[in-house]
Amino acid sequence: MNVSLWRATWIVAWKELVAAFRDRQTTLYTIVLPIAMYPFLFWALIQGALFVQGREEQTEVRLGVSASSDAEIPAGLTQALSKRPTLPTKASAETSAVHAAEKPIAPMVVEARGEPLDESGARSWMAKRAEKKPKTAETPDAVLWLHGPGPASDAPEGGANVYFDSSTSHSDIAKKRTLSRLPVYAESLREERARAVGREIDELDPFRIDEPKDIAAEEHGGAFLLSLILPMLLVVMTVIGAFYPAVDFTAGERERNTAETTLLLPIPRLAVHQGKIAAVCACAVLATALNLFALALSAGHLVNMLRDESELDIALPIAAMLSVVPLALLFAVFVSAVLTSVAATAKTFKEGQALLGPVQMLFLFPAMAGAIPGLELSVPLCFVPVVNVVLSFRAMLKGQWLPLEYSLTALTLLVLAALSVWIALRVLGRESLISSSGKATFWSRFGFERTRKSNA
Amino acid sequence: MNTTESAIVARGLAKSYVDPKRGRVDALRGLDLECKQGEIFGLLGPNGAGKTTTLRILATILAPTAGSAMVAGVDVTKDPLEARRRIGFLSGTTGLYPRLTPRETLRYFGTLHGIEKEKLEARVEELIDTFSIRDYADGRCEALSTGQKQRVSIARAVLHDPAVLILDEPTTGLDILASSAMIEFIDAARGRGTCVLFSTHVLSEAERLCDRIGIIHRGTLLASGTLDELAQATGKEWLEDIFLALDREARASNGVPER
Fold it and tell me: What part of B 157-186 touches A (C-beta under 8 Å)?
């Protein structure tokens, strides 16, 4: 009874995987690292955030205040927002005292526009930030837009909007400070007004502060945060996941004197080589999948923690995370085939590791492109390996629908993956790797030799 | 099967490769070889004579540059897959997978030989008993001693009951006990009608085991025959003297200085 090519491929791949996961190093890099990395990463992130928070308190930010034609900018507003809030009521005063004891002075320059601006005027005043235009002295980090009767009025419908740009830390700080100081000031004016008209404070409508508006339009929430870190991590984890198996199944096999044993298997050599590539690919996919799973768990925990302790309201974009899976699989095949073909040219495990070091960098450096602000997926970039994948992951996580770019990226990746598998098969089938006879030239390392091909 | 039927036939077998430092290297230069079914054939020769290359070509690990070879009726270049199904090959470089157990190794090879599950299990148990592997059948191969590994390797090589056994220096690196077990195994193979072709440096092994002996030098077969035939041809009594006489003669005719 003969074993079919695909069944033989499957049996070889399965055997390689069983053997691989009995190796501590492979298990460490393929399973333990992807799972353990995120809790550590997020712990480091929190520590970093605490440090940054400390620095934030010292940062000077600018707030622009503008009002609609039917509203007025209260005389004391600028001064009130420029300093730490003080509350007239006993309870509030206590809270404020505690607040003041906990935090150092947080400077904010508040500049009110002399002439009223409409909402679009306030936005464009602020938008100079988002457009990355050179910041002038007049460019505020955030804008407070007052509309309707002001905070001192007892008329309804009065309110305020805060415009900010979530992509800059200064703007975010300005927003937070405004939102913490404005309600206190508005409440004090309301109390003052109630006293002036001889009514209870509850009889006056409270001053309404709407949800802050982020002018960095699409870049928001968890998707935005994930799109900053996940693409690069996906690339890194795929490469790390494939690294050890690629060396272990090729150069490692020669070092262990089992390469010849494998070549005695009564199956086509193609099945042996396909099985090896498939096993490397499975390790890469497993590492990537565990990476995503661990990220979802750790990030979920972090998000819940932040939600409880702050006003941060972000959600994990699970659907967006799943949308990267098909492209991630193709990428895993590409990476596995490239690493396998390079590792297969080495005679020893050590040589294999040394060879794969620089190759790993060829993936990691372009992956850093994913972190470059402002770099977006475009048609020409769809043909640049690794950069196309990172930028596609990034766009997908942000929920952008770019069918042409995604298709071109997938097509490029498919061609590259097929080409790398073909080269890997040639390298794995090279006779001089099997025997000690003949030392390899550069081209013969990749299967381009003039002597007859090895037995199929 | 007729015991005089040829199990291995090699005609004009040549193997060349290009070495960046040495240039073109001719490892085999038109080697002719014939081994019969149920015969033990010993291949003797100095280092670099082409013994291992010959055996690797016959085992389909390497492809010849020229010439042809038939093993158990199958052309190794035209149908290497079928040839591998009929060959059991063992050498110092056919190690065991260190992270698999002996039982897993046998199952792995058996499955790929297409042996049905129930038959395979029975065969694995039979080999475990035959080669006294049971005590360590479920421990990883990396933890086995050299002798234990050798037993498992033999079990692996004969798992599919091959018609031809090709053994490259099967006793090299083994201690006396393991070496003795190997010699017994080769001797027993003759009784089963299996053709055994093996290379060795140990002349006493060849004298004790071989029905016929071939002397290989610089990629060609200088002489082959029974010990008596070789003694008659060279006028020497002992295999060591026969070997040295043929080696000296070959070096002289090729203009290679004596060592």
Answer: 160
